[in-house]
Structure formats: C-alpha cells, structure tokens
Amino acid sequence: MMQNNMQSMNQNQAACPPAQALSDQERALDLLCHEKATLSTLTTMVAEAANPALRQVLNDAYLQVGQDQYALFQQMQQKGWYEVKPAQDQDIQAACQKFQQMKCQLS
Questions:
Q1: Could you say which of 26, 76, 92, 98 would form a disulfide bridge with 81 (CB–CB 3.0 to 4.6 Å)?
Q2: 66 CB contacts (<8 Å, ≥6 apart)?
Q3: Does residue 15 form part of some domain?
Q4: Residue 20, φ and ψ in degrees, nearest 5
Q5: Would you give the distance in Å from CA 71 to the centre of its chain?
Q6: DSSP reduced 3-state for 8
Q7: Does residue 81 contact residue 25 with C-beta atoms inside 8 Å?
C-alpha cells in the first residue's frame, strides 16, 4: 500500500511542472492587490476604533498605506503594467454633482 502511494506521488510530481518564479509585473500586481485589501481593512478598523489614540494610529497607517499604494500604482502605470482609461470630463462632472447631492442630503 505504501509503495503504491509513493508511486502515485512520483507520477503526480512528474505530471506537474515545478512552479515558476513570478515576474516583476506579477509581483507588483500581487502587492497592489494586498495594498488595496489593507486599505479596505484599515477603513473598517478606523471607523470602529473607540479609543482615540488607537484610532489615530490606524488613521496614520491608512494614510501611509494609501500613499504607498498610489506610488506603486504610478510605477506600474509608467511601465505599462496597469492601464487606466481616462474619464471623460462630463463623467467627472456628473460624479462630482452626485457626490455633492449626497453630501447635502446627509447634512
């Protein structure tokens, strides 16, 4: 039985090629995804922190991660690894108006 398992493992290893190292682009995209997830988590943590000192520490961390994420995004964009379609002026204006309306409704 043990020998059959060993043979099966050897066959599986032969059928599956070894994992290849990630490219710089793949690593950068992975890091960017982690930065976005960290920002999302920190947003929740800041909103739920009751202790003012802890809230400040978390807010500072949020700002730093946001800056790091944006710097990475800019580098990826410069290398052509992350393409963003520019927004039309009318779309930007519509989004600003919608935000302003929401802000007024909440006031």
A1: 76
A2: 39
A3: no
A4: -95, 150
A5: 13
A6: helix
A7: yes
Domain of 58?
23-82
Which two three-digit tokens encode residue 83? 């393409």
Residues 6+ apart with CB under 8 A from 35: 65, 68, 69, 72
Give domain status of residue 65, yes or no. Answer: yes
What are the φ and ψ backbone dihedral angles of 35, each rounded to 5 degrees? -65, -40
When pLDDT is cut at 50, 70 and 90, the band that residue 106 belongs to is: confident
Res. 41: pLDDT tops 90: yes
Nearest to 48 by CA among 39, 58, 38: 58
Residue 50 lies in a domain: yes
Q: Is 90 a domain residue? A: no
